[in-house]
Protein: Putative N-acetyltransferase HLS1-like
Amino acid sequence: MGPEVMIVVREFDPNKDLLGVEDVERRCEVGPSGELSLFTDLLGDPICRVRNSPAFLMLVAEMGEEKEIVGMIRGCIKTVTCGKKLSRAAKTNTNNEPTKPVPVYTKIAYILGLRVSPSHRRMGIGLKLVLRMEEWFRENGAEYSYMATENDNQASIKLFTNKCGYSKFRTPAILVNPVFAHRVRVSNRVTVIELSPTDAEVLYRRRFSTTEFFPRDIDSVLNNKLSLGTFLAVPRGTYTAESFPGSDKFLAGPADSWAVLSVWNCKEVFTLEVRGASRVKRILAKTTRIVDRALPWLQLPSVPELFRPFGLHFLYGLGGDGPHAVKLVKALCGYAHNLAKARGCGVVATEVSSREPLRLGIPHWKKLSCAEDMWCIKRLGEDYSDGSVGDWTKSAPSSSIFVDPREF
Structure:
C-alpha cells in the first residue's frame, strides 16, 4: 500500500475553483451509454441553487499536492414550520370561540449538490464533505439537516442513512409537464387574479403558515426577482382584478372555492438538457411540435425541445379550498403553462406531498415526473427541547408540504 493521500475540505473559492468544480460536475453527469440522461448547466455559478437562501455555504474537497478538486457539496440554512400548536390565547379561551393553531418553527439545514468525481469514489470523500457541512450547520444553530435525492439513487441514500445517521422522512412527488407549441386553454369559468407580493404574503401566512416546511421568510421568497408572481383563481363572477378587496378582506369572507400558486423562474438560475436521444426520437419530437404549432385546435401533445438547453418554471405555494379547488388548480396550471411558453421555457414543474389532495388538478407527464422524491432527515443535536412538536424526525407526514423554490 502506498502512502495515504491527503484530502482537504475547504470553502469554495470562485476565483480559483470554478474550472475544477465544472470538471467534476461534467464527469458526474455522464449518463449510461445509449440511454437518456439529464444534464444541468449552472450558467457559470456553482452556488446558484443556494444563493437565494438566508445563509449558504459551498465546500470543495481537494486531493494531493496538485490540489485537484475531487468533490463538492452545498448547504443552506433557513427557519421553517415543523408543526403547530394552540396559541396561549387559545388555551385561555373561555368563550368557546373557534381557535386556529399557530406554527412551530425550527432552524433547518438543507444539503444539495453533493458530487464526488467518479474516479475518486469509495475513498470516504463524500462522508468527509457531509460531516464538515454538518459542523457548519451546528455552528449556526440548525436543529435538523435534510437532503433530497431520487428514490432509486441507492448510493446516496445508503451514504446518508447508513453512515451519516439520516432516516427516510418524506416522499413528495415531482410533477413535470412539457410546454406545448400552442397555448393551453384556460376555462372561461375561472378568473385568475395576480396578487401583489404584500397580498400574497398575507394569504400565505394566514392560510399556510402551519404547513410543513413553510419558510418563515416567505416575504423574501415572494419579493425575490426570480418570483414571477402569485396567482389566485376564483369562480368567474366572484371577483375581478379590479374588485379584489385584498387578502385580508378576501379571507374574512372567501369565495366558495379558490386556489393559489406562485411561479419561480429557474431559467435564470440553470438550464437542463436531455442527452442520449436517438436520431429517430429527435425527429419524432420535432414532428409533434410542427404539427402542434400548425394545428393547435387539435390539442395534440407535442414534445418540447428537450435535446438542447431549456429552462423551466417552478410552481410553488400551491393550495386552495372548497369543492372546486382541484378544477381551479388545473386552471392556474394552464395559466402558468402559458406564462412559461411566453418566456421560452421547455417545462413547468412542481413538487407536492404524495398525500396532497390538490395534486389531482396538476397536469403532468408520467415519463417526465418522479413519483417519489426521497427526503432524508437527521436531528443534529440532542440538547434541544422537544417543546410542542417533539422530535420532528419521528413525526407522521401531513397532507401538504411547502417546497421552497430557492432549493429546487
Summary: The longest helix spans residues 325-342. The mean pLDDT is 88. The chain has nine helices and 15 strands. The first strand starts at residue 7 and ends at 11.
